[in-house]
Amino acid sequence: MEMPLWLDAIVAALILAGALVATIGSLGLARMPDFYMRLHGPTKASTLGVGATLVGSMLWFSTAQGSVSVQEILITVFLFATAPVSAHMMGRAALHRRVGCQEKTNGQPWDEMDRLSGRAAQSSSSGESQR
Known about the structure:
Layout: H1 5-31, H2 35-65, H3 70-97, H4 109-130
Pfam families: PhaG_MnhG_YufB
GO molecular function, one term: sodium:proton antiporter activity
Keywords: Membrane, Transmembrane, Transmembrane helix
């Protein structure tokens, strides 16, 4: 089946945009100075880059085959569900391990954790004294 030229252009633009965003995310992984900054670039880029590539692929295959590809929809749902969750878990693990930041960073991420846990400890001890 012959695809219209406008659809070819949209598919090509989506695939090229996805590849460009994924490449920029990979460069961010290599160039950023600390773990938290390195975590941010690839997680955003993988979601957007692979998502755009998959949407372009879905458009092309749905036109060529005449039906929507269930596998690509499942891949997209899996990617959008797991990439943010895995990045969040890696960030939390780094906070608990107190992985260092760059010196120019305003504040340290675990200072906020200590402040919140101290506040939680104070409120629980004051709650016990009121009983």
